[in-house]
Amino acid sequence: MAHGLAAVIEEELNFEEEILQAAILVAMESDEEEERWREERERHQQPTRVEGYFDRTIPLYNLHEFKSHFRMERASFEVSVQF
Question: Which of 4, 6, 17, 54 is 20 to 30 Å apart from 32, CA to CA?
Answer without folding.
Answer: 17
